[in-house]
Amino acid sequence: MYIINGKIITMESQNFENGFVQIKGKIIEEVGDMATCPAQKDSEQVIDAKGAWVMPGIIEAHCHIGIIEEKLGVMGDDCNEITNPVTPELRAIDAVNPMDPAFHDAIAAGITSVMVGPGSANVVGGQFLFMKTHGRCIDEMVIKQPAAMKVAFGENPKTAYGDKDMYPSTRMATAAMLRQTLFDARQYLNDKISGVLDKEDFQMEPWIPVLNREIPLKAHAHRADDILTAIRIAKEFNVDITIDHCTEGHLIAEEIKASGFPAIVGPDLTARSKPEVQYMNFKTNKVLCEAGIMSAITTDHPVSLIQYLPLCAGLAVKYGMSMEEGLKAITINAAKICRVDDRVGSIKKGKDADIAIFSGNPLEVMTRTLWTVIDGKIVYGE
Question: Model's pTM, two decimal places?
Fold first, then answer.
């Protein structure tokens, strides 16, 4: 396949005002200026993208697509196992339904891959995965599994369990429960390394890639104090985190920068539905970027709809984020934060052929998606 005559926004060091992308199978074979484009054979599939923007497929770095299915209500909601506050053994791959119609909405918006997993009712919710948006069999759509371990701070865990007169009912208890879990997991790993374990523990094994810093804790934290608690615990146990939502991140940007951890900001295209999001504002993205913090943008679908992810990035630009950073926040930065930038997030030789072609700048509301290509196949087109 060839994509020719397009404005190629690679999200790498060089763009091409009039360029081409050559695809071989599922992989990008070459990208460059049209002056260097090889002649296409009659048998080659060709997309003439004249006047269009050709970009890496858009990435949603935090959502619940397919695990909270549209149209099905309670029957389609498998997001939170609110019977036990610590459930590291749960895996999103066992609950995400690729038949959720929201996947088509994502594809039609040029979104080619997503980070998806359980919600924030539990102190430890379970394992996220990173997957493509096109397919019927989730095992064939997955890029990384597990991709992160979900943990949550703030109102959600204390409300979910405090209302049942269960532990935790305070922020102190949430932090203590996570510390105890990580403490036990670290001891389990040490015992396993020492060879003194009698048998493997199903609930402890999922912590090994976290403790080895192979995957991060995906830390739900809105308020500044919750963000700082997440950072504090991560430092205590020498694990990595992503700060998800980061609603009050603009109030403590220097502290987040010092931590070295990235942020996934949002959803800002929604109501201030609880006290801990009272300072929600699209300007958070600008402040974090100016502080030098790597950040991505999320819809937290279905809190706000996944197809509005480019619009959310556009609104972040409206509130002061640079256009370049706005585009990075839904492409290469999202890929780096999700640790899949070796596969997706930019148009580069050797990467997956996941490409979105737009009538113009995708951050502008009137822009249309012309084609979406995933794994070298046209999965959406006018």
Answer: 0.97
